[in-house]
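Researcher: I'm comparing several assemblies side by side, and this is the next one on my list. It has 708 residues spread over two chains. Same procedure as the others: predict the full complex and return the structure.
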Amino acid sequence: MPDFTPFLVSGLATAATYVLSGVGIVVLYRAAGVVNFAQGAVGALAAFISWSIVEHGGPPGWSWVAGVVAAALVSLFYGRVIAPRLAYSDPIMRAVATLSFALILLGFMGYVWGEAPRRLRLPTDTMSFELLGVRITMTRAIAFGLGVLATSAVMLFLAYSRVGLQMRALASNRDLSAMLGVRVLRVDSWAWVISGLLAGVSGVLLADLQRLSGQALTFAVIPAIAAAVLGRFVSLPATVAGGVTIGVCEALLTPIPVIGPFRTAIPFLFAVGAMLWMQRRMTFVYR
Amino acid sequence: MTLRNTILGIVTAALFGCAGGVAHAADAKCGATTGKAATGEPIVIGGIVSVTGPDNFSSSGLAATAYFKCLNANGGVNGRPIKYQMEDDGWNPEQSSQVAAKLIRDQKAVALVGNMSFVDCGANQGIYEKEDIMVIAGVGVPRDCFFQKNYAPTNAGPRVSNTKAVMDVAQTYPGKIKRVVCIAPNIPNLGEWSCSGAVAWIKKQGGDGKIITFDPGSLDATSVVLEAMAFKPDVISVGTPKGLAVPIFAAAEEQGLADKVHFTGPASLYNPDFPRAIGKYWDGKVTVDMELKAADAGTPDMLNWLAVMDKYGQASDPRDTFSQAGYLAARVTAETLLKMDATKIDRKSVTAALRNIKRFESDMWCSPWYVGDGPRHNANHAGPVSFVKDGKLVAKPVCIESEDPELDDVHAYEKTIGIAK
């Protein structure tokens, strides 16, 4: 029987980055009604921009800020320029459009940065402590802390701020909210900015913790989407639970010989399982 | 200047720096070195590489292109120029089969040279054997590339390379290496096979080994490293492409493993960007196998390869180990064709002539290379090993002969043609 404890500890930080992206996806879906498949690609762009600034001698701290801000701006650009033109199209069309945007960003990153081996480093990588036999860097701890903090902040923002209230109103009934005076485009823009900020933070952390690769980071959206599916694109606590479960399960399955090499299928299993579970009543009705 | 050009400039400069800045020290010499362009009827030679897809995997084909240009500018094959057609298979088996059919059946290529693809060997084995066309490949990667009659790569392959990497560590620390972990991506016909040689070798020495395969799409390298450490290894071979290796080394650094376990890797990590990507922490703590000798060896063939690339290649063409392999594939083919009657060159005669190569020597290889008429080809199974020092890969001065048990049939065949020691 393998010792699962180190894998549990290791999986928590990865899970936190899934949570950050998943929360960004849910916030955007609730406000703007768009399932954002470009979340990972926007995060990857943030990571590459940070890396480039450091490579050209820039200060690391500001490079991460610049990367995250750039992610928010790219997200805002999509939200102001492209998304409004698709506002009355089918939800699937809107989701596919974000997938196209992700592939455009992926192509752009491939053209500019290529696939040469490189690594994004944060000063917190050199600070560490031991937990249950695993050395934990401060970056890993920060990732987990940020996951918890960002989720709490977004929940408070939605619950108590005026924009948060308007977002909730849009989520309930978009047309009615507009008639009541909610400035839809402005509120949508806020949602795109929040989504971009969370994507940027998640991208920079994932690039440091795992891999600075356009392709890998772009497709890191899959576990985040799976987490959002578990939260039915509505519930932030359920999304957080989903992200943590997926990240930790992925890590825990590592030492199991037959399943370990294929553990990246975990998000799909969770997403499919959740969808079947959510539709169980409908199935009963049809019978 | 775009950011991409700046980056390409830096990479090219670094690669030239790695090559010791000797590219201008020699004149490019190809074929009959007449200095006169060949004007006769072209001889069609094809090449299949992977340009578009997950990575640009075409370095070998680019080097072959440069060599054939050089050959054509120096009299060609007794007056006939080589028309080299390099096709992109896009990492797609179906596309690979289409371009193979185009080159072999439509363009009537007499041979394929400089191939470098993950999918070519598996997708096209049937057509190569049916049409009896020889492929003098630059870089073979999956198992299929080393187990067919018509495919002869100039490189050693990941399995031989992994075995040599582990053997080198064992030779450096005699009696201390008993347990080996080899990490590879779970790619069919590649991942597990590429590690099996190293594990079989350590078991033959009385030790034990474990192969860890992982999904290349997985982002959690720390779990892979923790799984490796649970086996309590003395050496870990990171048998992955360089891009996948960087996060594994980062995770190992995070766990402070460099002083606890020896780290090594096959030739897929032999890239000038690699030491910088993994960082100073690994200085003097990682060895990397090489399928061919170092680019800065300064030997005649090495200088000629650099001179050919300098004069007939593009500045952006990589000067890496895959480029060396492509140069060798083109040179072997050209020198074989030069011995033939130029008026009687067709596929059948070229296939027979290439199969008849029983000894081809170059200072880029550690031992003579050959094709022969055996059922499979893995002629390159000896080479040096490098180590990371001051942000560079420095080659050790000795060659290591791979003792992978899977090479027993290859060694037996070599005895019959007088190559084996």
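Model: For your comparison table: The longest helix of chain B spans residues 321-338.
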